[in-house]
Design a protein that fits this description.
The chain is α/β, with parallel strands linked by helices and 508 residues long. The protein has helices at 26-30, 33-44, 82-92, 113-117, 137-147, 151-158, 231-234, 243-256, 273-282, 299-307, 322-327, 334-346, 365-386, 418-432, 445-455, 461-469, 477-482, 487-491, and strands at residues 16-22, 48-54, 72-76, 107-111, 128-130, 164-165, 171-175, 178-183, 213-217, 219-220, 239-240, 259-263, 287-288, 312-318, 351-358, 395-401, 438-442. It has 2 domains: 16-183, 3-Layer(aba) Sandwich (Rossmann fold); 311-508, Transcription Regulator spoIIAA (2-Layer Sandwich). Helices cover 35% and strands 16% of the residues. α13 links the parallel β15 and β16. 45% of the residues are buried. The model has no long low-confidence stretch (mean pLDDT 96). The chain binds iron/sulfur cluster (SF4).
Length: 508
Amino acid sequence: MPSEKNAIRKDPGGKLNIALVYPNTYWVGMSNLGLHAVYRDLNAHPGIVCERFFLDVPRSVEHSRPIQDFHVIAFSIPYELDWINAIKILLDNRIPVKRTDRKSGPIIIAGGPSITLNPEPLANAMDILFLGDGEGFAESIYKSFFDSGNMDELLEKLSRVKGVYIPSYTYPEISCDAITSFVGPRPLISVTNPLNSPAHTAIITSKTVFGDMFMIETARGCPWRCKFCSARAVYSPFRPVPLDVLKDLFDKALESRLRLGLVSSALNDHPKADHMYVKIMEAGLKIAPPSLRVGRISPGLIELLRSSKVRGVTLAPETGSQDLRYSVGKQITDEAILEDVENLVSSGIKNIKLYFLVGLPGEEIVHVNAIVELVKRIRHVFVKVSKGNKRLGQITVSINTMVPKPHTPFERAPMLDPREARSRIKRIAKGLSGINNVFVGYEGPKWAYIQSLLARGDRDVLDLLIRMAETESSEWREVMNQWPRNPDYYALRKRDPKEILPWSFYGY
Ligand code: SF4
């Protein structure tokens, strides 16, 4: 096992034993701040022992125990594609995947952003699904577990807890392949407010993407309303972490002497952002910023970036056309983008990464071409301001295909056909090829297709997840072709306004 600092090892005797499973590799899982937060919260309870498992660590990290030894298996799943790995882990441990096939054994729970967006594809696999923020759940599950004589009593007790969705209590009624209504109590998404104990690095290890950083969540949620983005759906409302709480965490980061990784969807929208930057500089800490919202980059932030010797930042124009950008809810002008690039590069930032999407509703070829034109304009400013530097930095253009996500204004929109998405991406790459210092990268639209299928799935999708998990390779086209249902029905179809959506039975 990789060396770690601050891992928690408790005597499991007489306590509720929870296996916290991240269904991806140790590297990916330990790079996820949500996992650190859940691990810390559960272990903070004196009656709970929580040990970690990963796809490539099949026995617990803490004591090398098998997963069947635990009372509860809790999956933390931020991304839909990891649902396949979660099923694989159950299969590898010979735990029946379908809830109704299990007569005994651990209680199986799943939570995380992908579950909050749409728990239905895992509804027939899990005993409990958790929606929203997990803070406070440790006490609820501890008490319910020790006050209950059997699983039915435990579920009954937990069903009263905010955030808990019991899929055997609440379920859709189906007629002619369509949902006609939902039966059972309406679950509510759990919201922690105020955020007095934000997520931060709990275990220090070099084997993560952020190995040299101490990560701190400075706010949860986002005050903006981009129609394609699920940040508001999963984390609402926008909750900045109080400054005094952050100050204590900065002191904690100082002890590890690591760079500070700030985590927020809207860093500069923290009402005390400039005070926060001053505190960081006073503490002598250096930062790594998250993706920055264009038009919200203050002189205070630029000063912090400069003092931290940050070499690269990420901006997300999303599309090259200002009109399309406004129509999808991202109200940022082209001029604001160019101005921010100028200010950042003149303050010493060497490299700029730009995120773009293809397949936004209303996108036409003229808008795709506009991405090429905008990048050229950005490069023009970039080169002009960089004059005099010994070495010109680079502009990295990262292109993804939009996945219409549940609970967003685009939840009923069709996804762009992956062949057309690929053609648009190629068009952008060709338009920018041969331009010095501009590099283009993209994720294949086939992954967006699978994500769209899973993210907007219903309970029938579990069968596909099991077939995928049973397949050794990740070439899933053949698996999808053999599935009795039509995958395009889920991934590409435009939903009728009258259609009852599988994820529409819960909310705030
Ligand atoms: S895209 Fe960024 S700014 Fe827009 S809602 Fe999502 S997190 Fe907020």
